[in-house]
Amino acid sequence: MTATETRPDDTAATTRPVLSFDDVLLEFSGVTALNGVSFTVDPGELFAVIGPNGAGKTSIFNVLSGVYRPQRGSVRFGDEELIGRKPHAIARLGIARTFQNIELFSNLTVLDNLMLGRHHHNPYGVLAAFAWLGKARRNELANRKAVEEIVDFLELAQWRRMPVGLLPYGVQKRVELGRALAAEPKLLLLDEPVAGMNLEETEDMARFILDIRDELGLPMVMVEHDMGLVMDLADRIMVVDFGRPIRTGRPREVAADPDVVRAYLGEEHRIVP
C-alpha cells in the first residue's frame, strides 16, 4: 500500500501548512536557480521534490536552511518568516537537515555524533558544562536519554560505541538521520537519504522514514532521485525543471503528467508509480 492510499485526500484542506514556500526567485549573477517556486507542507506530510540534475532542488533546501537568500518571495515556517535568518537561527526554530554527502565526525562514536544534535538543548555555559553540576548535569542526562531512544528507534544499538568511520555506508546514513532527529525538529529536510545505498540499505531507510512520519508525526521535505522510493513514500510531489515548478500533486497524478515525463525521463519513457 502506498503512502497516498493511507491518507485521506481532504486532510490538507482542513489543516494549516507547517511550511509555506511562496513565489521564490533566486538568482546568481544573472543565472536563475529558482523562478516562481511555490509549495506548502502540511502537518505530518512527506513532501518530495524531484527533477533532473540542476533543476533547483538543492537550491530549495539551501533557501529553507538559510544558506541562500532569495531576491523575491516568502518562506514561512508556522508564523515565522525564514528569509533573512541565519542557518543557526532557523535550526533553533525547529528545522533539521540531513545531507547528500555524509557530514559526520568519523573519529567519534555513534553516541557522540548523535549527542551533537542536542546542542540546541543545552541552556548553560562552558563553565557549567565543565563542572557538570545542577542544570548542566540534569540536562546532560536528559540528552543522553533522548539519544538512547533514537538509538533504539533507528536500530543502532550494536554500533552505539563504535567510531562512525568504521561503519558501513548505509549505517552512517542512518546515524546522520539520527543526528537530525536528536535536535527534536518540527520539520525534517532529507537531502537524498538513499543516495549510494544498495537495495537492502534503501529498504531499511524507507522503513525508518515511514516510521518517522507515521509514529512521530514529523512532516518532511525530501529530495531524492530514486523514483521508486519517491512514488512509494511521498504524499505529494513537486517536479521542478530549470528552476521552475512543472507539476505538484499526488504521486499517480505526477507520474501521468506528460510534461513531467518529458522533463524528467524524455519523450519515450514513463514513470511507473
Automatic annotation (TrEMBL):
Keyword Ribosomal protein: no
Keywords from the UniProt entry: ATP-binding, Nucleotide-binding, Transport
CDD domains given in the database record: ABC_Mj1267_LivG_branched
Nucleotide-binding as UniProt keyword: yes
Gene Ontology molecular function, alphabetical: ATP binding; ATP hydrolysis activity
Domain ABC transporter positions: 19-267
Gene Ontology CC entries for this record: plasma membrane
InterPro entries: AAA+_ATPase, ABC_AA/LPS_Transport, ABC_transporter-like_ATP-bd, BCA_ABC_TP_C, P-loop_NTPase
SUPFAM superfamilies noted in UniProt: P-loop containing nucleoside triphosphate hydrolases
Protein's name according to its UniProt entry: Branched-chain amino acid transport system ATP-binding protein
Species in which this protein is naturally found: Kribbella italica
